[in-house]
Design goal:
Length: 302
């Protein structure tokens, strides 16, 4: 009797376990299909010689397979990809570093006026891009014409003055990214050991030394989170680029601006070329996530 009861309990327990696992796998399969479906369809479309022929999500036949659109897309976007790297890397690094310093000053150092300054950082996060477009344009064109002021730099380097517009874009992204970076680092620093910081102070370490020797090395997981977040935001941003850079034909145009006009002609849209360009543009952000995924998960969990 006892043996039958135990067997029934195991059977019932095993059925429940399998049912839960089956439900979990079904949910995961749906999520994978939901997120990877558009990517698969875009990839398949970019490899077809005639994107309108056949079922959209099925791969092309051997006779319909072509890589011509990928070559054309890379040729059209190569300068934009280079400009985006020049823009995104320094803007990401500087906004993260300055945000870390600001958060350190707002958490580990006592001084009057912290709450109003912190409130300004929080308020700045909720300012939409659209609200600053006109003031931003006036600032760079009337009050601080950076391209004209640095004319000797462009002449000395032998590059087009249009790269002054890219410099404006870098500074704008740094300024706009500092508030969110500060808040993210502040939440991390609030959980840092106060005894460790206090012990360093008692040993005579200065504020700068404590940040450089203790706080900065311990911030690696949060730096991974902030750098991935900022790089993705800046790489994919289009609105500021449309305002600060004249057109997609500019020598300093980032890849998102060039991509907006890719594949357009009087005959219509070249869907295969646009899909190839979109996937090519997304590759750097995917590579960053793959390379730093573990650090991102560790930092997000802290």
């Amino acid at each position: 009797m006892t043996g039958e009861t135990t067997t029934d309990e195991r059977t019932e327990s095993g059925f429940d376990f399998d049912a839960k696992r089956l439900g979990l796998y079904a949910t995961l399969a749906l999520l994978v299909g939901f997120f990877l479906g558009p990517i698969e369809m875009g990839l398949v479309t970019s490899l077809k010689s005639d994107p309108t022929a056949g079922v959209p999500f099925l791969p092309p036949s051997a006779s319909g397979l072509t890589f011509e659109k990928w070559g054309t897309a890379f040729e059209a976007l190569s300068s934009g990809l280079f400009n985006s790297v020049i823009m995104a890397v320094p803007a990401t690094v500087f906004s993260a570093l300055l945000g870390s310093m600001a958060a350190y000053g707002l958490t580990q150092i006592s001084w009057k006026g912290q709450i109003p300054i912190l409130s300004l950082f929080v308020a700045a996060i909720f300012i939409p891009y659209q609200a600053v477009l006109v003031p931003l344009t006036q600032f760079w064109s009337i009050y601080f014409p950076l391209t004209d002021l640095l004319w000797f730099v462009w002449a000395g380097l032998g590059i087009s003055e249009e790269y002054g517009e890219l410099l404006k874009l870098i500074i704008t992204h740094i300024a706009y990214g500092i508030p969110i970076c500060t808040i993210l680092f502040r939440s991390f620093y609030k959980g840092m050991s106060e005894e460790m910081i206090e012990a360093a102070r008692l040993d005579g370490a200065s504020i700068r030394r404590i940040y450089r020797r203790i706080v900065l090395p311990l911030s690696t997981p949060m730096f991974a989170v902030v750098l991935i977040y900022q790089f993705t935001q800046i790489w994919n941003e289009l609105l500021f680029a449309l305002i600060l850079i004249s057109s997609g034909t500019s020598e300093a145009a980032p890849v998102t601006l060039v991509l907006a006009g890719l594949g357009e002609s009087q005959e219509g849209l070249d869907f295969a070329l646009r899909m190839a360009g979109a996937l090519l543009t997304a590759l750097p952000t995917l590579i960053v996530y793959v390379l730093f995924g573990e650090e991102f998960a560790e930092g997000a969990a802290t």
